[in-house]
Amino acid sequence: MAEMNGKYVNEQTHQKGKKFFKKAALIAGLIALTLIIAGIIVIVNGVNKPVPDMLQDGWFEAESDRNQAIFSGAALIGVALIPGVIAISMLVVAHQREILAFGASTVAPVAGETINYLADETSPAIEKVVGAVSSGVAEGVVKAKSATGANQNNNVKYCQECGTKNPKSAKFCSNCGKKFE
Ligand SMILES: [Zn+2]
């Protein structure tokens, strides 16, 4: 099934359309070719006209004729661009299925490989980041707990003078003898 204008068309319609666009491309191509050949002939004729002698009467008119022929030929070739572009467009339309199929066969494996590559390369990196963040958070929670005293043993106290751990009931530091307040 080929898609055309949002509607699915059957194989017969597709082949008919293909034939039509191929024919249109052939006609437009022949018109373009004819215009190009005519243009070349006109230019060659113009160039081959004798260069007028400036000392003779009527040289200006002769020179104008010669230039006009060359410009006309160039114009014909320029006009040939229109049927030329039409011919190419019609060929593209006629062969859209082949072009799309070729495009898909070229792009799909590349896209697949790219996605696999990205997935392979990023998952460990993302795991590392997540791991770092979670361990950082865990460490931060432990620090925050000890800072607020939540993780401290309530049965001990530390000497302000030497930092020695003493029982909470102690009246003096067991190390330096400083009196607790
Ligand atoms: Zn002490």
Can you tell me about this structure?
With 181 residues, the chain is mostly helical. It has two domains: 9-51 and 61-120; 143-174, no CATH class. Helix content is 70%, strand content 7%. The chain contains four helices and four strands. The chain has helices spanning 11-48, 59-79, 81-94, 96-148, and strands at 2-4, 7-9, 156-158, 165-167. A two-stranded antiparallel sheet has the order 1-2. Strands 3-4 form a two-stranded antiparallel sheet. Strand 1 and strand 2 form a beta hairpin. Helix 1 (11-48) packs antiparallel against helix 2 (59-79) and helix 1 (11-48) runs antiparallel to helix 3 (81-94). The longest helix is centred in the C-terminal third of the chain and has 53 residues, at 96-148. It is elongated, with a radius of gyration of 45 Å. The mean pLDDT is 83.
Low-confidence parts lasting 5 or more residues at pLDDT below 50?
A: none
Number of E-state strands: 4
Largest sheet: 2 strands, antiparallel
For the termini, the CA-CA separation is 92 Å
Number of separate helices:
4
Major sheet: order of its strands?
1-2
**What structural category arises from helix and sheet content?**
mainly alpha
**Average predicted confidence as pLDDT:** 83
Provide the number of structural domains. Answer: 2
